[in-house]
Write a structure and sequence with these properties.
The chain is α/β, with parallel strands linked by helices and 280 residues long. The protein is built from 10 helices and 13 strands.
Length: 280
Protein backbone atom coordinates (compact mmCIF):
# COMPACT_ATOMS: atom_id res chain seq x y z
CA UNK A 1 0.00 0.00 0.00
CA UNK A 2 1.12 3.57 -0.55
CA UNK A 3 2.75 5.50 2.28
CA UNK A 4 1.07 8.49 3.91
CA UNK A 5 2.39 12.02 3.39
CA UNK A 6 4.69 11.96 6.42
CA UNK A 7 6.26 8.64 5.46
CA UNK A 8 6.64 9.65 1.80
CA UNK A 9 8.40 12.85 2.83
CA UNK A 10 10.91 10.93 4.93
CA UNK A 11 11.47 8.39 2.19
CA UNK A 12 11.88 10.90 -0.65
CA UNK A 13 13.29 13.99 1.06
CA UNK A 14 15.63 12.83 3.80
CA UNK A 15 19.20 11.72 3.14
CA UNK A 16 22.60 11.81 4.83
CA UNK A 17 22.79 15.59 4.36
CA UNK A 18 19.54 16.22 6.28
CA UNK A 19 20.37 17.66 9.70
CA UNK A 20 16.88 17.96 11.23
CA UNK A 21 13.28 17.04 10.52
CA UNK A 22 10.91 19.44 12.29
CA UNK A 23 7.22 18.49 12.65
CA UNK A 24 4.61 20.60 14.45
CA UNK A 25 1.93 17.93 14.98
CA UNK A 26 2.29 15.27 17.73
CA UNK A 27 0.51 12.55 15.72
CA UNK A 28 2.72 13.20 12.71
CA UNK A 29 5.83 13.10 14.91
CA UNK A 30 4.77 9.67 16.21
CA UNK A 31 4.14 8.37 12.66
CA UNK A 32 7.49 9.73 11.48
CA UNK A 33 9.39 8.11 14.33
CA UNK A 34 7.62 4.78 13.85
CA UNK A 35 8.43 4.79 10.13
CA UNK A 36 12.06 5.78 10.74
CA UNK A 37 12.46 3.05 13.33
CA UNK A 38 11.25 0.47 10.80
CA UNK A 39 13.06 1.61 7.66
CA UNK A 40 15.72 4.26 8.38
CA UNK A 41 16.80 4.07 12.06
CA UNK A 42 19.76 6.39 11.47
CA UNK A 43 17.25 9.23 10.90
CA UNK A 44 15.41 8.69 14.20
CA UNK A 45 17.60 11.05 16.31
CA UNK A 46 17.07 13.84 13.75
CA UNK A 47 13.25 13.91 14.04
CA UNK A 48 12.12 16.66 16.41
CA UNK A 49 8.77 18.05 17.54
CA UNK A 50 8.43 21.78 16.90
CA UNK A 51 6.80 23.56 19.85
CA UNK A 52 7.43 27.19 18.97
CA UNK A 53 7.93 29.95 19.49
CA UNK A 54 5.53 30.95 16.73
CA UNK A 55 4.37 28.86 13.79
CA UNK A 56 6.69 26.52 11.92
CA UNK A 57 5.54 27.87 8.54
CA UNK A 58 6.26 31.43 9.67
CA UNK A 59 9.74 30.66 10.95
CA UNK A 60 10.84 29.31 7.58
CA UNK A 61 8.57 31.49 5.37
CA UNK A 62 6.89 28.42 3.88
CA UNK A 63 3.86 30.46 2.78
CA UNK A 64 6.18 32.71 0.78
CA UNK A 65 7.99 29.73 -0.73
CA UNK A 66 4.72 28.12 -1.81
CA UNK A 67 3.51 31.40 -3.33
CA UNK A 68 6.79 31.74 -5.24
CA UNK A 69 6.41 28.23 -6.68
CA UNK A 70 3.08 29.23 -8.22
CA UNK A 71 4.73 31.96 -10.27
CA UNK A 72 6.63 31.17 -13.48
CA UNK A 73 9.55 33.58 -12.99
CA UNK A 74 12.47 32.88 -10.65
CA UNK A 75 15.10 35.54 -9.97
CA UNK A 76 18.81 34.72 -10.20
CA UNK A 77 21.52 36.26 -7.97
CA UNK A 78 23.05 38.36 -10.76
CA UNK A 79 19.72 40.00 -11.67
CA UNK A 80 18.69 37.66 -14.47
CA UNK A 81 15.87 35.17 -14.25
CA UNK A 82 14.44 31.91 -15.51
CA UNK A 83 10.84 31.44 -16.62
CA UNK A 84 9.17 28.03 -16.32
CA UNK A 85 6.07 27.36 -18.43
CA UNK A 86 4.30 24.00 -18.56
CA UNK A 87 2.11 22.48 -21.25
CA UNK A 88 0.64 19.00 -21.68
CA UNK A 89 3.58 18.02 -23.87
CA UNK A 90 6.58 19.55 -22.11
CA UNK A 91 7.99 22.15 -19.74
CA UNK A 92 9.95 25.02 -21.27
CA UNK A 93 12.54 26.97 -19.28
CA UNK A 94 13.82 30.26 -20.67
CA UNK A 95 17.01 31.86 -19.33
CA UNK A 96 17.29 35.66 -19.44
CA UNK A 97 20.16 37.85 -18.24
CA UNK A 98 17.92 40.90 -17.71
CA UNK A 99 19.94 44.07 -17.24
CA UNK A 100 23.02 42.25 -15.91
CA UNK A 101 26.20 42.85 -17.92
CA UNK A 102 29.58 41.40 -17.01
CA UNK A 103 32.39 43.93 -17.47
CA UNK A 104 34.51 41.39 -19.37
CA UNK A 105 32.02 41.01 -22.22
CA UNK A 106 28.92 39.30 -23.58
CA UNK A 107 30.31 35.75 -23.42
CA UNK A 108 31.14 36.09 -19.71
CA UNK A 109 27.74 37.64 -19.01
CA UNK A 110 26.03 34.72 -20.75
CA UNK A 111 28.21 32.17 -18.97
CA UNK A 112 27.56 33.56 -15.49
CA UNK A 113 23.82 33.80 -16.04
CA UNK A 114 23.67 30.30 -17.53
CA UNK A 115 25.65 28.84 -14.62
CA UNK A 116 23.32 30.46 -12.09
CA UNK A 117 20.32 29.20 -14.07
CA UNK A 118 21.69 25.67 -14.32
CA UNK A 119 22.23 25.54 -10.55
CA UNK A 120 18.71 26.83 -9.86
CA UNK A 121 16.89 24.65 -12.41
CA UNK A 122 17.51 21.41 -10.49
CA UNK A 123 16.10 22.97 -7.31
CA UNK A 124 13.04 24.29 -9.10
CA UNK A 125 12.32 20.95 -10.78
CA UNK A 126 12.45 19.20 -7.38
CA UNK A 127 10.32 21.78 -5.54
CA UNK A 128 7.76 22.11 -8.31
CA UNK A 129 7.59 18.35 -8.94
CA UNK A 130 8.18 18.81 -12.67
CA UNK A 131 8.71 15.69 -14.77
CA UNK A 132 8.49 14.52 -18.37
CA UNK A 133 10.15 16.32 -21.27
CA UNK A 134 11.93 19.58 -20.33
CA UNK A 135 13.48 22.00 -22.84
CA UNK A 136 15.88 24.67 -21.54
CA UNK A 137 16.68 27.71 -23.70
CA UNK A 138 20.05 28.87 -22.39
CA UNK A 139 21.65 32.13 -23.50
CA UNK A 140 23.88 31.45 -26.52
CA UNK A 141 27.51 30.56 -25.78
CA UNK A 142 30.35 30.39 -28.28
CA UNK A 143 33.07 28.62 -26.30
CA UNK A 144 32.82 24.79 -26.03
CA UNK A 145 34.41 24.82 -22.57
CA UNK A 146 31.74 27.23 -21.35
CA UNK A 147 29.00 24.98 -22.72
CA UNK A 148 30.61 22.03 -20.92
CA UNK A 149 30.65 24.01 -17.64
CA UNK A 150 26.95 24.77 -17.90
CA UNK A 151 26.06 21.13 -18.64
CA UNK A 152 28.21 19.94 -15.71
CA UNK A 153 26.49 22.32 -13.28
CA UNK A 154 23.07 21.31 -14.64
CA UNK A 155 23.89 17.61 -14.19
CA UNK A 156 25.03 18.22 -10.60
CA UNK A 157 21.94 20.29 -9.90
CA UNK A 158 19.46 17.62 -11.01
CA UNK A 159 21.40 14.77 -9.37
CA UNK A 160 20.46 15.86 -5.84
CA UNK A 161 17.39 13.64 -5.69
CA UNK A 162 16.65 10.05 -6.66
CA UNK A 163 14.54 10.89 -9.71
CA UNK A 164 15.99 9.36 -12.92
CA UNK A 165 17.03 12.14 -15.32
CA UNK A 166 18.62 12.16 -18.76
CA UNK A 167 20.27 15.24 -20.29
CA UNK A 168 21.15 15.64 -23.98
CA UNK A 169 23.98 17.85 -25.30
CA UNK A 170 23.32 21.52 -26.00
CA UNK A 171 22.16 22.21 -29.55
CA UNK A 172 23.57 24.89 -31.85
CA UNK A 173 20.67 27.12 -30.80
CA UNK A 174 21.50 26.86 -27.08
CA UNK A 175 18.68 24.38 -26.33
CA UNK A 176 19.12 21.53 -23.87
CA UNK A 177 16.56 18.73 -23.85
CA UNK A 178 16.19 16.57 -20.78
CA UNK A 179 13.72 14.06 -19.38
CA UNK A 180 12.86 13.59 -15.72
CA UNK A 181 10.69 10.77 -14.45
CA UNK A 182 7.26 11.87 -13.26
CA UNK A 183 6.99 10.86 -9.61
CA UNK A 184 4.07 13.08 -8.53
CA UNK A 185 1.76 15.79 -9.76
CA UNK A 186 3.50 19.15 -10.16
CA UNK A 187 2.85 21.81 -7.53
CA UNK A 188 0.94 23.92 -10.06
CA UNK A 189 -1.66 21.15 -10.44
CA UNK A 190 -1.79 20.35 -6.72
CA UNK A 191 -2.43 23.95 -5.67
CA UNK A 192 -4.26 25.42 -8.67
CA UNK A 193 -6.78 24.46 -11.33
CA UNK A 194 -7.85 25.83 -14.70
CA UNK A 195 -9.72 29.11 -14.53
CA UNK A 196 -12.91 28.77 -16.61
CA UNK A 197 -13.31 32.52 -17.28
CA UNK A 198 -9.73 32.49 -18.62
CA UNK A 199 -10.74 29.90 -21.27
CA UNK A 200 -7.91 27.58 -20.29
CA UNK A 201 -5.17 30.22 -20.42
CA UNK A 202 -4.91 30.83 -16.66
CA UNK A 203 -5.02 29.01 -13.36
CA UNK A 204 -6.58 29.76 -9.99
CA UNK A 205 -5.88 28.35 -6.52
CA UNK A 206 -7.99 25.33 -5.61
CA UNK A 207 -10.60 25.43 -2.86
CA UNK A 208 -8.41 23.16 -0.70
CA UNK A 209 -5.38 25.44 -1.14
CA UNK A 210 -7.29 28.56 -0.08
CA UNK A 211 -8.98 26.74 2.83
CA UNK A 212 -5.58 25.57 4.09
CA UNK A 213 -4.23 29.14 3.88
CA UNK A 214 -7.26 30.40 5.81
CA UNK A 215 -6.84 27.82 8.57
CA UNK A 216 -3.12 28.50 8.91
CA UNK A 217 -3.86 32.23 9.16
CA UNK A 218 -6.49 31.54 11.83
CA UNK A 219 -4.01 29.46 13.86
CA UNK A 220 -1.46 32.25 13.58
CA UNK A 221 -3.98 34.87 14.75
CA UNK A 222 -5.11 32.66 17.63
CA UNK A 223 -1.58 32.24 18.86
CA UNK A 224 -0.92 35.97 18.61
CA UNK A 225 -4.18 36.86 20.44
CA UNK A 226 -4.83 34.00 22.89
CA UNK A 227 -8.32 33.70 24.33
CA UNK A 228 -9.93 35.72 21.52
CA UNK A 229 -12.71 34.06 19.54
CA UNK A 230 -12.18 34.59 15.83
CA UNK A 231 -14.39 34.82 12.75
CA UNK A 232 -13.29 33.77 9.28
CA UNK A 233 -15.08 35.44 6.37
CA UNK A 234 -14.58 33.78 2.98
CA UNK A 235 -16.26 32.81 -0.27
CA UNK A 236 -19.16 30.32 0.17
CA UNK A 237 -17.29 27.46 -1.53
CA UNK A 238 -14.41 27.79 0.95
CA UNK A 239 -16.74 27.76 3.96
CA UNK A 240 -18.63 24.76 2.54
CA UNK A 241 -15.41 22.80 2.13
CA UNK A 242 -14.28 23.47 5.72
CA UNK A 243 -17.69 22.65 7.19
CA UNK A 244 -17.89 19.51 5.08
CA UNK A 245 -14.78 17.94 6.60
CA UNK A 246 -16.73 16.51 9.51
CA UNK A 247 -16.68 16.51 13.29
CA UNK A 248 -13.18 15.03 13.70
CA UNK A 249 -11.67 17.73 11.50
CA UNK A 250 -13.41 20.50 13.44
CA UNK A 251 -12.26 18.98 16.73
CA UNK A 252 -8.70 19.04 15.42
CA UNK A 253 -9.15 22.68 14.47
CA UNK A 254 -9.94 23.42 18.11
CA UNK A 255 -6.35 22.53 19.03
CA UNK A 256 -5.08 25.37 16.86
CA UNK A 257 -7.85 27.89 17.63
CA UNK A 258 -8.85 27.04 21.24
CA UNK A 259 -11.19 30.01 21.76
CA UNK A 260 -13.22 29.06 18.70
CA UNK A 261 -13.55 30.02 15.05
CA UNK A 262 -16.86 31.07 13.53
CA UNK A 263 -17.19 30.66 9.77
CA UNK A 264 -19.09 33.21 7.72
CA UNK A 265 -19.77 32.91 3.99
CA UNK A 266 -19.59 36.12 1.97
CA UNK A 267 -20.89 35.71 -1.65
CA UNK A 268 -19.12 38.88 -2.79
CA UNK A 269 -15.69 37.43 -1.93
CA UNK A 270 -13.49 35.92 -4.64
CA UNK A 271 -12.33 32.36 -4.05
CA UNK A 272 -8.86 33.46 -2.91
CA UNK A 273 -10.13 36.29 -0.70
CA UNK A 274 -10.70 35.90 3.05
CA UNK A 275 -10.50 37.88 6.30
CA UNK A 276 -9.72 36.73 9.85
CA UNK A 277 -10.74 38.96 12.76
CA UNK A 278 -12.22 39.15 16.23
CA UNK A 279 -15.74 37.72 16.52
CA UNK A 280 -17.69 40.59 18.07
Amino acid sequence: HDLDSVERTLRDGVDEDTQRVLIDDPDAVARARAYAERTMPEVLPRIHAFNGPGQLFDQYNIEGEIEALLHPRVRLPSGGWITLEGTEALTSIDVNSGSFTEATGLEETSLRTNLEAAAEIGRQLRLRGIGGLIVIDFIHLNEPEHIAQVLTVLAESVSRDRTPTQILPMSAFGLVEMTRKRVREPVSKLFTEHCDPCHGHGRIKTVVTVAAELLRRAARESRARPGLKLVAVAAPEIIRWIEGQGHEFMQGLRKHVPAGLRLEARPAFRRDQFDIGADT
